[in-house]
Amino acid sequence: MSIRIWHQSFTVLGELTPYRQALEEHFRTVSRADTEIVMHGMRPRTYRSNYPGDDIKYCAFQYLHGLQFMQAARAAEKGGFDAFALSTLPEPALREIQTLVEIPVVGYLEAALESASKAGSKIGVLVFISELAELTAANIRQHGYENNFVVASHVGFTFHDVLPAFDDPEPLLERFFASARKMIKTGADVIIPGEAPLNVILARNGISEVDGVPIIDSLAAWIQRAERLVDAHRDGQSMQPGGYFSTRPPKDRIDELFRFYGLS
């Protein structure tokens, strides 16, 4: 039975054609043949430029932008999608979204950590935005992988450096290798390339390890996790353990509050 996944980026994908095309190509190689991944980005003019990092390094702005993710998840469920997948390291409003909809909701970091924990015992995460290292560490604790975590640190370049690498990857790859080797020296025996644009550059250039240390394909990890959760959901397996952080509010009250806050 086919699966439809709503992919949600933290970028305005309409302004990033090479990145979008690279994602589409990669998704076809790592998903099941009958899985359809429908790509979505943020609304036009969400940011001042095509780069979200100037905003999302601030927790208040990330909270506000996370409202788009909450709206998108509800649209995915109403649109008949089988799963909603956050394709961004910070995972804005992930825990809240998982209580708003009944379809499986998958986080990018959450899936990458699951995959990394099977490939090694000491996880390192490379990020574009240095301020997100602290958030990444906090999210790792929330996901229950604190004992497997070594460090989250800046990769040594930014999103703006990645865009030209879709045409000329070698200079960027050399800088990535240098950062990865530095992280390996801190004790990491498996590395998550934290940002999705970097992930897809590495994947399309066949980079799956550095000096024998695995490099996790986080995009493949969340697609495959989404597929597994959809299978479990269809088999009637519950994914809501209960408690404050997991209990789903009444649907009519969700609708009422979304209308009240102008989020319908």
From TrEMBL:
Which protein are we looking at?
Racemase
- Organism equals Hyphomonas adhaerens MHS-3
Q: What are the recorded GO MF terms, alphabetically?
A: amino-acid racemase activity
Please report a single Pfam family linked to this protein: Asp_Glu_race
Q: Which top-level group of life is the source organism from?
A: Bacteria
Give the similarity note. Belongs to the HyuE racemase family.
